Amino acid sequence: MKKVIEKALSEIEPTVNEREKLLGLKENILKRINELELTEVKPKVVGSVAKGTFLRGADIDIFLIFKKGTNLKKKGLKIARKILPNGKELYAQHPYLRGEIDGVGIDIVPCFAIDKSSESISAVDRTPFHTDWVVSNIANLESDIRLTKQFLKAVGAYGANSAIGGFSGYLVEILCIKYKGFLNLIKEMSQWRPPVIIDEMEIPKSPIMLCDPVDKKRNVAAGVTLKGLGTAVLASKSFLDEPSHNFFFPKYKERDSQGNLTSIILSLPGENEETVMPWLQKQARKIYKALDDFEPIAWNTNIGNKGYIVIETGIRKLPQIVSHRGPAPWENGAIEFLKKYPNATLNNGKLVIGKKSKNRSVEGVVKSLLPDAIVREGICEGAKPIQRVPWLD
Q1: 126 and 132 in contact (C-beta within 8 Å)?
Q2: The pTM is what?
Q3: What does the alpha-carbon distance between residue 337 and residue 58 come to, in Å, rounded to a whole number?
Q4: Could you tell me which residues come within 8 angstroms of residue 6 by beta carbon, excluding any fewer than 6 positions away?
């Protein structure tokens, strides 16, 4: 295991040249902003570069901190344009610019100055507090944090956006600091079962509950879905069972499908992948649920010129009559179900009746939900197959 970890670390730690280039560019950008002699804004480097936890190929995140009430779009983007004249305007809870200088990605994000992180007007306003907390508590755990980020990234559980539902960089840093390193965290994670209550909180339950150190009322792990948690737990168990370089740099592996594959092609409602992918995944979940009678096995989504959903099902066509499960006798609606279907029987604790299939084909179900969808048997051009677990040899 030691050799696996050392090899991975040697491949993810920035080289001396990259580190010097990144830090030099950061200082140059700050200098250019300060030379504008602006009194209403304070620039601050945040994120992994400020914390010293960045991987190879990292971006630089610079916040422009304004007093409350400032028009961030007008004033913030005006300043950002002086640094990134060709930057692309993007939106989180308010606009920011993304661009590139000397091959390095740069995000310049306007935000509001707040005295307490709990008083944030938007999520990004507390980010400077996150940076300061990690810098104050990191205690030489930079390498462990890098390993954890790469591990979760490789297995598909890194990134708090809704398309992934995984662990944010800040959450990784908190967990590494709390459990004092990569291996301790992996061992802890391998034993997790949802809900993982690290901190008791009086807010709606999530798969993981952990207080933000700078805002005790905020669950810093709220973005982690059951799938993201499950992926991390399974990968942790597998790594401890048989450590391998594949957990940090997995190879793509074709998966042998067990059932019938169907491709669904959709026009996209925009160009921003950060919003389009969650929308596409929502459609996939809706279709997958509606195909319950077709013995659904798995699904996958990807974006190209169109949106693509690949669904794997046990069967492609239903018989004329299918089993329709109702409530248990002790559940609400049992009498109503029995009145509606007097020929229902009690089987395995549930009322069951045979019903005519409303849609006997996968295509029929998809079209009933998404009339404009194009449905093809097999995997069509542009669609990506369902991938198997990537880290296993």
Answers
A1: no
A2: 0.84
A3: 58
A4: none
* CB within 8 Å of 312: residues ≥ 6 apart: 257, 258, 259, 260, 261, 262, 296, 297, 298, 299, 386
Please report which confidence band the pLDDT of residue 69 belongs to, taking 50, 70 and 90 as the band edges. Answer: confident
Q: pLDDT tens digit string along 230-281?
A: 999 999 999 999 999 999 998 877 788 889 999 999 999 876 667 788 899 9
Cβ neighbors of 240 (< 8 A, separation 6 or more) are 186, 187, 190
Q: What is the pLDDT of residue 271?
A: 67
Per-residue model confidence as pLDDT tens digits over 180-197: 999 999 999 999 999 999
Residue among 108, 159, 107, 162 nearest 275 (CA): 162
Residues β-bridged to residue 61: 46, 107
Pairing, β 321-325 against β 88-91: unpaired
Q: Which tokens go with 351?
A: 């009322």
CA distances from 39 to 30, 42, 95, 107, 355 (A): 14, 8, 21, 21, 72
Ramachandran assignment for 245, one of left (phi > 0), alpha (psi -120 to 50 degrees), beta (any other): alpha
